[in-house]
Protein backbone atom coordinates (compact mmCIF):
# COMPACT_ATOMS: atom_id res chain seq x y z
CA UNK A 1 0.00 0.00 0.00
CA UNK A 2 1.83 3.07 -1.27
CA UNK A 3 5.22 1.56 -0.45
CA UNK A 4 4.37 0.99 3.22
CA UNK A 5 4.16 -2.31 4.95
CA UNK A 6 2.06 -2.51 8.12
CA UNK A 7 4.85 -1.84 10.66
CA UNK A 8 5.95 1.26 8.75
CA UNK A 9 2.37 2.44 8.35
CA UNK A 10 1.89 2.07 12.11
CA UNK A 11 5.07 4.04 12.75
CA UNK A 12 3.89 6.79 10.41
CA UNK A 13 0.43 6.97 12.00
CA UNK A 14 1.80 7.06 15.55
CA UNK A 15 3.07 10.64 15.38
CA UNK A 16 -0.10 12.38 14.29
CA UNK A 17 -2.56 11.82 17.16
CA UNK A 18 -0.40 13.33 19.95
CA UNK A 19 0.43 16.35 17.78
CA UNK A 20 -3.21 16.84 16.80
CA UNK A 21 -4.43 16.50 20.38
CA UNK A 22 -1.88 19.09 21.54
CA UNK A 23 -3.02 21.43 18.76
CA UNK A 24 -6.64 20.91 19.80
CA UNK A 25 -5.83 22.09 23.31
CA UNK A 26 -3.97 25.11 21.94
CA UNK A 27 -6.88 25.98 19.63
CA UNK A 28 -9.30 25.70 22.55
CA UNK A 29 -7.16 27.93 24.75
CA UNK A 30 -6.73 30.50 21.98
CA UNK A 31 -10.46 30.44 21.25
CA UNK A 32 -11.27 30.89 24.92
CA UNK A 33 -8.78 33.74 25.40
CA UNK A 34 -9.56 35.55 22.13
CA UNK A 35 -13.28 34.68 22.25
CA UNK A 36 -13.26 33.45 18.65
CA UNK A 37 -15.74 30.76 17.76
CA UNK A 38 -13.71 29.75 14.71
CA UNK A 39 -10.77 28.75 16.92
CA UNK A 40 -13.05 26.73 19.19
CA UNK A 41 -14.43 24.87 16.15
CA UNK A 42 -10.89 24.31 14.90
CA UNK A 43 -10.13 22.76 18.30
CA UNK A 44 -13.15 20.47 18.10
CA UNK A 45 -12.32 19.25 14.59
CA UNK A 46 -8.66 18.82 15.45
CA UNK A 47 -9.64 16.83 18.53
CA UNK A 48 -11.83 14.47 16.50
CA UNK A 49 -9.15 14.10 13.85
CA UNK A 50 -6.67 13.15 16.59
CA UNK A 51 -9.07 10.62 18.08
CA UNK A 52 -9.74 8.99 14.71
CA UNK A 53 -6.01 9.03 13.95
CA UNK A 54 -5.34 7.39 17.29
CA UNK A 55 -7.72 4.56 16.48
CA UNK A 56 -6.12 4.19 13.05
CA UNK A 57 -2.71 3.89 14.74
CA UNK A 58 -4.05 1.27 17.17
CA UNK A 59 -5.59 -0.79 14.38
CA UNK A 60 -2.41 -0.55 12.28
CA UNK A 61 -0.38 -1.57 15.34
CA UNK A 62 -2.55 -4.60 16.00
CA UNK A 63 -2.28 -5.68 12.37
CA UNK A 64 1.47 -4.99 12.30
CA UNK A 65 1.99 -7.06 15.45
CA UNK A 66 0.95 -10.16 13.54
CA UNK A 67 3.62 -9.46 10.89
CA UNK A 68 6.54 -9.00 13.31
CA UNK A 69 7.88 -11.89 15.31
CA UNK A 70 9.91 -10.33 18.10
CA UNK A 71 12.51 -12.52 19.76
CA UNK A 72 11.76 -12.64 23.47
CA UNK A 73 15.46 -12.40 24.33
CA UNK A 74 15.63 -8.86 22.94
CA UNK A 75 12.94 -7.51 25.29
CA UNK A 76 13.00 -6.20 28.83
CA UNK A 77 11.74 -8.71 31.43
CA UNK A 78 8.45 -6.87 32.04
CA UNK A 79 7.71 -6.75 28.32
CA UNK A 80 8.53 -10.44 27.98
CA UNK A 81 5.79 -11.32 30.46
CA UNK A 82 3.24 -9.15 28.62
CA UNK A 83 4.14 -10.66 25.26
CA UNK A 84 3.96 -14.21 26.65
CA UNK A 85 0.46 -13.55 28.03
CA UNK A 86 -0.65 -12.11 24.70
CA UNK A 87 0.72 -15.07 22.77
CA UNK A 88 -1.00 -17.53 25.13
CA UNK A 89 -4.34 -15.76 24.64
CA UNK A 90 -4.04 -16.16 20.88
CA UNK A 91 -3.48 -19.91 21.10
Structure description:
There is one protein chain. With 91 residues, the protein is mostly helical. Helix content is 80%, strand content 0%.
How do the strands and helices of this protein lay out in sequence?
Blueprint: H1 6-14, H2 16-34, H3 37-67, H4 77-90
Helix pairs in contact: 1-3, 2-3
What is the CA-CA span between the terminal residues? 29 Å
Overall number of domains: 1
Estimated radius of gyration = 18 Å
Unreliable stretches: none
Main pleated sheet: none
Order of helices and strands: HHHH
Shape: elongated
Short description:
This protein has 91 residues and is mainly alpha-helical.
Features:
91 residues; 4 helices; mainly alpha; 0% strand
Amino acid sequence: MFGYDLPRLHAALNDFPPALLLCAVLFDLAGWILRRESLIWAGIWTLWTGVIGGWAAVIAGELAEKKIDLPLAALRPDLKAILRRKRRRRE
